[in-house]
Amino acid sequence: MTALENSGFKPHLEAYLKNVRSSLANTADDIAQGFFEITHNSFALLGLVVVFGGHHPDGPA
Question: Rounded to 10 degrees, what is the CA torsion of 37, 40, 25, 28?
Fold first, then answer.
C-alpha cells in the first residue's frame, strides 16, 4: 500500500471536525466573555447611579 492509497476521506474528516470543535469553543468563549462584560458594566453603572443619583440635597420632591 502506498501513501496515496492511505490518504482518503478520514484525514479530511478529522481535520474538519477539529476545526468545527475549535470554532464552537471559540464562539462559546466569546459569548461567555461578552456576558461577563455586560454584567460587569451593568453593575458598575448601577453603582454610579446609586452613588451619584440616589441623593438629592433638597430632599424628595
Answer: -90
